[in-house]
Amino acid sequence: MYNNPHSLKSSNLIDMKNEKDEIQSTGLRISRTALPDVSPTSKVPFIDWKAEQFLKVIQQDALEMIFVVNLKGDIKFANDAVKSMLGHNPTQLLDSSIQKIISAKQWVSFRAAMRASEEEADESIKIDCQFLNHKNKKIHFSLAVKDQRHHPLVEGYVVHAKNIDRLKKLEEQLKLRNIAIEAIKEAIVIISLERPSIIYANEAFFELSGFSKQDILSQKINVFRPPYSEMLFSEPTPPKTINRFLKSLKSKRKFEDRIFSKRKNGQIFYNRISVKPIFNHDAEVTQYVVSMKEIVKRNKN
After folding, report:
1. pTM
2. Residue 147 neighbours by CB distance under 10 Å
3. Which of 202, 251, 256, 266 could form a disulfide with 188 if both were Cys (CB 3.0 to 4.6 A apart)?
């Protein structure tokens, strides 16, 4: 069958227009410098869409949100992770301001990061930012902002956003736990076996023992061995009690008893102590939590 060359050329141009519209609708901007050379036979540019399809596939399960924004904050590209992490349709966010999904206060920090990235062109600027999901709930993210305005394919600021909401919640829980520990009257000490050293002690411990933070924290102190062991076990603690304690350490069991301990000034006091091992995922003891409480009057029981 004879085909009219003019009608074929017209059809090819229509297909190209449709393809161009499809690119714009997905938020991808293809620079002409990135297009292959024009075929000498058809004189119609040929675009390999496999690369575009590959990009869509690998973004489906992306662990980070990726945005491309201009200086005004308008979103020029958003990957599929935006849908899974925030519930927003990435296509509907295109050409709208990123202020639509962050608060005014966050926008000030975000814009400052963009400006800073202009001066540090080879490195990303790291900031924390809260995005608003489709239910207007704030979610914490860690952002890496990089100035790519001069890149022919990007021409904007590339933003990688990693969800740290769970981490922030854990930090809040730790703060509350520390407040609770500081509020209780029992002395609490956390001993790390890595150095070994005391990595945490509450105010009640410093009041009970007479030691200061400078004496204890960040120092290589093994309270289970002399000369520091007298902080916990001092004379006249019975040898059988100390032996039972050492057996508990060896068998990785909790130890509880009443013993004699020594303050920094050398004063001996009667003390109810609990030593609890903390295990890692390999069932190895990495830390001990020690609680101490002075017994003013020694009971006969």
Report:
1. 0.49
2. 23
3. 202
